[in-house]
Sequence to fold (371 residues):
Amino acid sequence: MAPKRPRGASRFPKAVEPTSPGDKDPAELYAALDLGTNSCRMLIAQPKGNQFHVIDSFSKSVQLGLGLERTGKLSRASMNRTMQALKICQKKLAKHDVRHMRLVATEACRRAKNGPGFLRSIRHETGLTLDIIEPEEEARLAVISCAPLVSTKTEQLMVVDIGGGSTELVWIDISRVPKVERPRAIMRLHAGFVPDDNSPFAAARVVDWISVPLGVATLRDQFVDVEDDAARFALMSWFFEENLSEFSPYEAEQAREGFQIIGTSGTVTTVAASHLGLRRYDRNKVDGLRMTSDQIDKVIRTYLDLGPEGRRADPRIGRDRHALIMSGAAILQALLRVWPTDRLSVADRGLREGLLYAQMSADGVLDHGAY
Fold:
């Protein structure tokens, strides 16, 4: 499973073709659904200024990729769980009369031999049409979802999206963009990673990006036969770092000043919630939080000290996350070990938010004021 990043010009995602904004009603609702390796998530939202207001949401752990590493196929039980979740999503879409939507599937459906057939079954049973998106688009959507969290002091930005089946990393140079324009320059990447030379705006430059086919579920499955908890964690972290060797920023030491890492995933938000001691998750306290590498290491050491049974019983981790938290923590530790930063910005946002921003930006229903 080599990291996926085509060489040459094809390394950049295709641009989103903008539609005419003239016939769009800003009051209309938009929906985004992300069917991943572990979870099914949906947001229904309304444009509001340069952001959006969430009207309804859905999130459920369906473990679609359970057993995929071993069989190469989606299991019957996993598909049944996912189908039930999607039927709930379909009812919510109908209830709110949503007409603008983007529904996507990622790594599990990309890799599974029966992935396309499963999507046909979804369309037949629910009427929902899901697109299997490529790693390039997945990386772009993760980046633009994090635009509001980009500091105006940032010159070099890395966005990390730790998924269930893959991890996307995007390195962006915004040093030539005026400080007040830097978050907006990230948002303009919805049109593609290649800057428009005719644009009147200063452009963010994507230095490199990579999709590593190791997420919290697939990395865990690689080392499921290792019985010792601490040894399994160390092996997972080392193995993930080995898969970064072709990512160009890995090759040379980067300056610490002006460098920002934004992490978006259930792993990152769970670590943040544990650091804050939240027995009940609160997005308002987690999203945008900045953690030091020492604080993250302390949480990870606590997880290791707890062991599998302790993590299962820890309310800060949750029943849906305890089996996956150490593989995610191994990825996170590898990233902080490799790159020169002592802080990580926590993003409780990701593919769904990126899908919403991309649709609304293309339709011209978002304002252009500063973040």
